[in-house]
Structures are given as C-alpha cells and as structure tokens.
TrEMBL record:
InterPro entries per the UniProt record, alphabetical: Aldolase/citrate-lyase_domain, HpcH-HpaI_aldolase, Pyrv/PenolPyrv_kinase-like_dom, Pyrv_kinase-like_dom_sf
Lineage: Bacteria, Bacillati, Actinomycetota, Actinomycetes, Micrococcales
HpcH/HpaI aldolase/citrate lyase domain: residues covered: 21-240
Molecular function GO labels: aldehyde-lyase activity; metal ion binding
Keyword Nucleus set for record: no
SUPFAM superfamilies, A to Z: Phosphoenolpyruvate/pyruvate domain
Signal peptide start and end residues: none
GO cellular-component term (any): cytoplasm
Statement: the UniProt record of this protein carries the keyword Cell cycle: no
Name of the featured protein: Aldolase
Record organism: Microbacterium rhizomatis
Family, per entry: Belongs to the HpcH/HpaI aldolase family.
Keyword tags: Lyase, Metal-binding
Length: 284
C-alpha cells in the first residue's frame, strides 16, 4: 500500500479530491480527519517557517487511526505550496519542506524545462551505489537526525532515504511534485517540460495568475478557461495528471467531466442556522 495516497489513486486511474484550507491550525486538523484525499498547506502567500510546518504536519495525524487502520499513510496526504517560484531554483526551501515531512510539493510558476529539472534534482537524494538512478540526478542534502521526515513517515532513516524519491521518475517513489502552470510562457513550455522532465508528477492549471498574465485581472473569463483546456490537453497527450480548482461557475463535476484528474476546492464556511433565521424574519 502506498504511503502517498495521491500517488496510489493516480496509479489506479482514480480522481483525487484536494482542498486548499487557510493556515488556521484548527481548520487544518479538522480537514486532516476528513474524506479529502489531499490538502495543500499554503506557504507561498503566508510565509514559511520550518518549525511551524513541522508542528502543522504533526497536528494532521490521528495516531489511533494509524494504529487501528494498520497503515502508516495519513488519511489526508499533506502537500505544501512552496513560497519560492519554480523559476527561482530555490533548493533550500525544497529541502527544508521535504525534511519537515511533506509528501508532495506544489511549485508555483513552473515555466521552463530548466526550472523543472532544478526542482526535481533538489527534491531527490543522491542514489545509493548499485541502485538504478534516473535523470536528473539528486542533490538533496542528508540531514541525519535533524531531518523530521523519517519519524513523521514512521520509517527508519534508511528506509525513508529509499522511498523518498520522486514519482513517477522513480516508480517506487513516494514524493510527488506538482508544478503550477500559470502563465502563457508556462503553457508554451509545457510540452517540452513533460517530455523531458519525468519527475514532475502532476500539473496544476493555475487559473488566478494565468488570468492576470493574460490581462484579465484574475477573472475566470472564457479566454482563461480556453487556456486551462489547452493545459489539460497537453497533459492528457503526455499522460500526466492535471489539476484544476473549482470556482463559482465550474463545479467539481464540471472539472471531472472535462478530464481533470485532481480537483481542488476550498472548504465551505457555512452559516446555515443564520441563513434560516434571516429568512424566517424576512431578511434572507
């Protein structure tokens, strides 16, 4: 059984349901016990702290559930959106995010083959002698006892070293890198990225910044939806899963019917009792 639930679902041809919560730790803990397949911890727009990330990841685990379920895999697989754009080739943030225990990274503004290669190399350890290796070679630093990830994954350090490789470049890897394509430059580069860099396991069609880059100030216009469809078509041709968010006009059902394999939504904040009361007194 996969430690990374998302990889297991994608290998089985299933749809992955993910969410993008706030950085409130109580909300994150609640989602960690939900039916979502994955959640994305946001550090691109909220700032990065390695210690806070470690504490957040620990709060997602229900240890009784792990024992009773007979698996080390968390119920909801934690991904982290890195604060640095992929084009920055920022190795230390990739290293420290993985060292904290993340099972997947979401890489903003992936728009070149070089950026993709750099991210994959930064996420991989150099392989042990006698083990099949893949390009690009890894250069993630080994932190020994300072690395929290082995204990978070519930593995001896030597076993973590073996399985903490990127999928599908390493078919047995348990780390998934998801690049966000959110510019016209990224769309143009995407066929080459997916052809030449096999360590990018999924692509997120990023509607917000894509809209901005196209001059539509963040609005989900028909032109932006057409660009998302182009990203999806490129991914389908390459056999790479593609993610997209829902919005006011596109439901999860719509995204699934379009062919997206990973559907992302924000948690609902419901005021059902207030709505009923307001309606009852004529203010609804």
């Amino acid at each position: 059984m996969r430690l990374n639930k998302v990889i297991g679902l994608l290998e089985a041809g299933d749809v992955v349901f993910g969410t993008i919560p706030s950085d409130d730790e109580n909300e994150l803990r609640a989602i960690g016990r939900s039916a979502y397949d994955m959640l994305m911890i946001e550090t691109e727009h909220t700032g990065f702290s390695g210690r806070t990330l470690q504490r957040t990841l620990q709060g997602l685990l229900d240890r009784r559930e792990l024992v009773e379920g007979g698996t080390l895999a968390p119920r909801v697989t934690p991904f982290v959106r890195t604060p640095a754009n992929a084009r920055e080739h920022n190795e230390w943030l990739i290293k420290q995010t993985l060292d904290a225990g993340a099972f997947g990274l979401v890489l903003p503004h992936l728009d070149s083959v070089e950026a993709a290669q750099a991210a994959v190399g930064a996420a991989r350890y150099p392989q042990a002698n006698g083990v099949a290796d893949f390009e690009p070679h890894g250069h993630r630093g080994w932190a020994g006892s300072m690395c929290a990830a082995p204990s978070y994954w519930g593995l001896p350090a030597s076993e973590y070293y073996r399985v903490a490789d990127v999928w599908p470049l390493d078919p047995a890897g348990e780390v998934l890198l998801m690049g966000i394509v959110e510019s016209t430059e990224g769309i143009e580069a995407l066929p080459d990225i997916l052809r030449r860099v096999k360590g990018i396991g999924a692509i997120w069609a990023g509607i917000g910044d894509l809209s901005v880059s196209m001059g539509f100030a963040g609005a989900p216009t028909k032109e932006v939806e057409a660009a998302l469809q182009r990203i999806l078509d490129i991914c389908v041709d390459a056999g790479v899963p593609c993610a997209a968010p829902t919005n006011a006009t596109m439901t999860p059902e719509d995204r699934i019917d379009q062919g997206f394999r990973i559907v992302l939504s924000r948690p609902s904040l419901s005021f059902a009792a207030l709505d009923r009361g307001m309606t009852h007194v004529g203010r609804g």
